Amino acid sequence: MRKFSYIALSMVLLIGAVLAGCSSASSNAAVAKEGDKVQVNYTLSLADGTVVQSSVGGEPFEFTLGSGQTIEGFDKAVVGMKVGEKKTITIPAAEAYGPHLDDMVVEVSRDRIKVDGELAVGQTLTSTGPNGEQYQFTITAISDNGTVTLDGNHPLAGKDLTFEIELLKIN
User: Fold this and answer.
1) Helices (H), the chain
2) Which of 40, 56, 85, 89 has the most other CB atoms within 10 Å of its CB?
3) Do the strands 51-54 and 61-64 form a parallel or antiparallel pair, or are they unpaired?
4) pTM score
5) Domain-by-domain residue ranges, the chain?
6) Quick check: 22 pLDDT over 90?
7) 102-151 sits in which CATH class?
């Protein structure tokens, strides 16, 4: 009888170990975490549904989580995802490109802008600061009196952004 009990106990323990191994293997799929290099497909749209940008059908976006290569809210959304997982998230302006700041909008005389050719609303200009830093401005208005309104905000500043994200790969 002791022999039977020992064999039965051994079988129960063996089956338990196999089942535990099976369940942990399926629940231990890699999860994206800070420091991981990941590849994603994404579609970025605005609140009105306008698609601004998408990697779907093109090159996946590859970056390292937590490295500052993306906006804060995008990094947060990918952390914890598993390969093959898809999600749609809305990132508030504060975690995206920040608020639209009125003090980043300036009006200057046309003769202070040194570019060849005509200026146009929507045109992007680059300026170099005294320490070599680069600034981008978008022309938002050109007046008849010779002034040009330049906006130094990111074009998506002040906007909540909706992303459809699919995690393709974790390196």
Assistant:
1) 2-27, 72-78
2) 40
3) unpaired
4) 0.73
5) 1-28, 37-98+157-170, 102-151
6) no
7) mainly beta
